[in-house]
Amino acid sequence: MITVALLSRPGLMDPMQALLARELPGVTVASWPESAARDAELAVCWKPEPGALATMPKLKLIHSIAAGVDNILSDPTVPDVPLCRIVDPDISAAMTEFVLWGTLYFHRDFDRVVSNGRNGVWRRYEQRAAKDRRVGILGLGELGSAAAIRLVELGFAVSAWSRSPKALAGVRTYSGADALDDFLGETEILVSLLPLTASTVGLLNAGRLGRLPKGAALILCSRGEHLATEDLVALLRSGHLRGAVLDVFEHEPLPADHALWREPGVLVTPHMAAIASWQVIAQQVAENARRLLRGETLLNVVDRARGY
Ligand code: NAP
C-alpha cells in the first residue's frame, strides 16, 4: 500500500488521518516532519514548508487540499511530479452563493443601508434592474463559470475574462491581456476568481482598478496577492470606487489591528467563500491514490507551466 504525507501547519489536517484510513485500507498516513512522511509517495499539502517536498525521494504525486495550487508552487524547489487540486460541485455552489450575495450587497445598496442604519439614517436609493447592472468576472474556470451561469439566470448583464477564448450562454466573453481594459471599462461589479500565477499576481492595481467606471465595486474571492491594497484604498477614498468585499489577503488571518477592518466601504470576510469538506478532500485524494497505484490517468491535474 501507499504512504501519504500530510504537509501543513500543525493540526490542520488531523481529520484526514481517519478519513484516508477509511478510504484506503492499509495506508500509512504520516504528518510532516515525522520520519515516515519522508518516505511517502503521495503528499497532501496546504502551504507546505518551503523545501520540504524536495526532501521526499519516493514522491510520485502532490495533492493540494484546495482548488488553488499557488500555496504549493510558490516553493521553487517543488519536485516535478504530477500536481492535482480539488474540484468539487459543492465548492462551486458555495462560491456561487458568495458571489451572488456580494453582487446583491452592492446591487441592492445593502452596503449603504447598513452603514446608514448605524447612524439612524432612513434613506432609500433608486433601484436598478439586474439587466442594467454589469457584473464582470475575472476567470471563467470551474468557479467563475458556475457563478456566471447563476448571475445570468438572475438577469444580470454578465461578462467574463479568461486567458483563452471561451463561450458561455448569456455571457459576454473577453480573453487575453489586450482585452482586459475593455472588459474592466464595462464592469460595475468586479468579481475576481483568477488563480494566483506569475501572470496574475498584482493584477488589480491602480491602473486596472482605475479602468473601472466611477462607482464600481470589487468582490475579491481569489487570492490576496492579486490586489494592490493601497491602490484600492486610494481609489475608495477618492470616491472612484464605491466599495469592496475582500475574502482573501496576502497574510491570513488578517491581523485584528489591520486598517482594512475599519476602512469605510470595505467588508472583510475570513477566507470563507468556498471551503472544501475534509470528506470530499479525502475522497478525491484517495481516488487519485488508487489511480496512481493502478497507473491510470489522474483527476484534476494542474498544468505546471501555466501555474493553474
Ligand atoms: P480554474 O478552473 O483553473 O479557472 C481559472 C480561470 O482563470 C480560467 O478561466 C483561466 O483561463 C483564467 N485565467 C488564468 N490565468 C489567467 C490570465 N493570466 N489571464 C486571464 N485569465 C486567466 O480555477 P477555479 O477552480 O475556478 O479557481 C479559481 C481560484 O479561486 C483558485 O485558484 C483560488 O485562488 C480561488 N479560490 C478561492 C476560494 C475562497 O474561499 N476564497 C475558494 C476556492 C478557490 P482559461 O479558461 O483560459 O484557462
Structure description:
- There is one protein chain.
- The protein has 308 residues and is of the alpha/beta class.
- It folds into 2 domains: 105 residues, Rossmann fold (3-Layer(aba) Sandwich); 178 residues, NAD(P)-binding Rossmann-like Domain (Rossmann fold).
- Helices cover 30% and strands 17% of the residues.
- It has a 7-stranded parallel beta sheet with strand order 8-7-6-9-10-11-12. A 5-stranded parallel beta sheet has the order 2-1-3-4-5, with helices on one face.
- Strand 9, helix 7 and strand 10 form a beta-alpha-beta unit.
- Helix 1 crosses helix 9 and helix 3 packs across helix 5.
- It is elongated.
- The two termini are 29 Å apart.
- The chain binds NADP nicotinamide-adenine-dinucleotide phosphate.
Task: Itemize the secondary structure elements and their pairings.
Blueprint: E1 3-7, H1 14-23, E2 28-31, E3 42-45, E4 61-64, H2 70-73, E5 83-84, H3 89-107, H4 110-118, E6 134-138, H5 142-153, E7 157-162, E8 171-175, H6 180-185, E9 189-192, H7 206-211, E10 216-220, H8 229-237, E11 241-246, E12 266-268, H9 278-294
Parallel strand pairs: 1-2, 1-3, 3-4, 4-5, 6-7, 6-9, 7-8, 9-10, 10-11, 11-12
Helix pairs in contact: 1-9, 3-5
Bound molecules: NADP nicotinamide-adenine-dinucleotide phosphate.
Residues 67-68, 91, 95, 139-144, 161-164, 166, 193-197, 199-200, 221-223, 247-248, 271, 273-274, 308 line the site of NADP nicotinamide-adenine-dinucleotide phosphate.
